[in-house]
Amino acid sequence: MTSDLSITIAGIKFKNPILTASGTCGYGEELAEVFDLSLLGGIVTKSITVKPREGHPPPRTAETEGGMLNAIGLANVGVDKFIEEKLKFLEPFETRVVVNVAGAAIKEYVEISARLADCPRADMVELNFSCPNVAEGMTIAGSAALAERAVREVKAVFPRPVMAKLSPNVTDIGEIARACEAGGADALSLINTLVGMAVDIKSYRPRLTNNTGGLSGPAIKPVALAAVYKVSRAVKLPLIGIGGIIDYRDVIEFMLCGASAVQIGTSLFVEPDAPIKIIKDLKKYLSENKLGAVKELIGKLRPY
Amino acid sequence: MSKIVIENLAIINKKEVGSGYFLLTLGFFSKTGTIKAGQFVHIRLPRSNIYFRRAFSIYDYNPGNKTIDLLFRVLGRGTAALAAMSPGETLDVLGPLGNGFKFPNKNETVLMAAGGIGMPPIYLLARQMVQKGFDPSRIFFFYGGQTKNDLVEISRIRKLKTRLYPATDNGSYGFKGLLTEAISSVINGKEARYRIFACGPEGMLKALDQFGRTEQIPGQLSLEAPMPCGIGVCLGCILPLRAGGYTRVCREGPVYDIGEVLL
């Protein structure tokens, strides 16, 4: 019996529920030297902004217990070069391309999404609402009203599904999720990194030039699972789980908690071929457990 | 399209070649034929809770014997975990990674500067050059350390028959003082066409970068930066370029022309 690994999210069929997370796989060029990108359910490209950005000065990553901190500062090639070169590179691969979009104001998310509307290779956009210092004065991720408005305005210009990426650095992630749903989001991905810090006790300096950064890796998986569980009860939208996934068991945990698919992030830095192993192991798990389709796992948690 | 390969390589031998210095011999890659001096491997550390891989320059290799040598000094948790491994165990190795050194022209005199545990890629470059017929008497090999005990594996360098100039900070062996001072004392006005190759501590590389630019001696430096992924996706191991912008040490480097990176 061959098990069906495919998943459909917002009308888009993914060949399996394994995507690579934004900011951990560039635009796919390097990972394509490790494995065939066509094996992936999808690739979520690095956040793009209107203009190219160099990012923060080094050091901008720091290893921590069970994970890492990063404050890359949205280094990216800008939307023009992204469309001309990077999206073109991804053209031949038989995988879904989700383009992560970031901005310093809602109008920038709209501007980039409008450009991507004419690029059919961009199957979906994912809105990174965690950027600090946006024109509206706070992160969009932290404001239900801004998140709803941003999603609505992007939906007006982008004809394919729009996904909002939720930050865990909020009082009530369920409230932000409901606001995105009200704004017309087709899916939600969660979680982005947790704000964290590390200090060098010799120099009294933070270990990142940005002082604080985003924590990722296995250390954050329990937080991510709880967020997926909570949001799955707050909205009807399909969810893509992110946070510390290293193997197929983690994927199953996320799916049981309500995720339709997952993104593999920081694990790629340690095992660049992790997604391929996970896909293989997931297939084996399904057949060993006589499950006909991976989608049967979604939300099957038996909570107390 | 080039291929990035991950392999499990057996540890064939482990030898402490100096206090805190280890020579680790691994099995050879099955999917990769050649190694360029200056390239590195990115190794997972089993039996530890260390999350990231650690990068090590390739010290030597022998496709005939099917071996790769790594030489490292125990300086932190990662190197301590590697030193605790035993022959018979296997390591998860990503590589060879990085660009490697460009060979000099045959009419040049080469100034090689190997500072402490920065020695391995410089040795490999010298070894490959000599093997390809480069006159070893035109290689001035400066090997510096804090004390005589830090000049490990000097006998292997001697076998290349280069002009070897050991130097120690405290004068316990060879020239007393910094490698840059040793180099200045040896080079001979504008008589020869020199080229520098260097790997070592930050201060030494900075001084050589300055020296090369002032004396208009071209060359290459092997640089390092804390390196999470090793394949260019995390954007962590960046250094600023003199021309502006950043470079990824793991991908565009780790070897750069003198003057290219803002040190």
Give an account of the 3D structure.
The complex is a heterodimer of chains A (304) and B (263). With 304 residues, chain A is an alpha/beta fold. Chain A has eight helices and 16 strands. Chain A has helices at 78-90, 106-117, 144-157, 173-182, 221-234, 248-256, 267-270, 274-288; strands at residues 7-9, 12-14, 18-20, 42-48, 61-64, 67-70, 96-101, 124-128, 162-166, 187-190, 194-196, 199-200, 205-206, 213-216, 239-242, 259-264. In chain A, helix 2 packs parallel to helix 3 and helix 6 crosses helix 8. The relative contact order of chain A is 0.17.
Oligomerization status of the protein chains: heterodimer
| Reported CATH architecture of chain A | Alpha-Beta Barrel
Largest interface between protein chains, with number of residues from each side: A-B, 33 and 29 residues
Helix content of chain B: 10-25%
As a whole number of angstroms, the C-alpha radius of gyration of chain A is 18 Å
Please identify the structural class of chain B as seen in this structure. alpha/beta
Give the SSE order of chain B as H and E letters.
EEEEEEHEEHEHEEHEHEEEE
Please tell me the overall pLDDT of chain B.
Answer: 94
* Helical stretch tally of chain A: 8
Keywords:
heterodimer, A: 304 residues, alpha/beta, TIM Barrel, four-stranded antiparallel β-sheet, 8 helices, B: 263 residues, Elongation Factor Tu (Ef-tu), domain 3, Rossmann fold, 2 domains, seven-stranded antiparallel β-sheet, 16 strands, globular
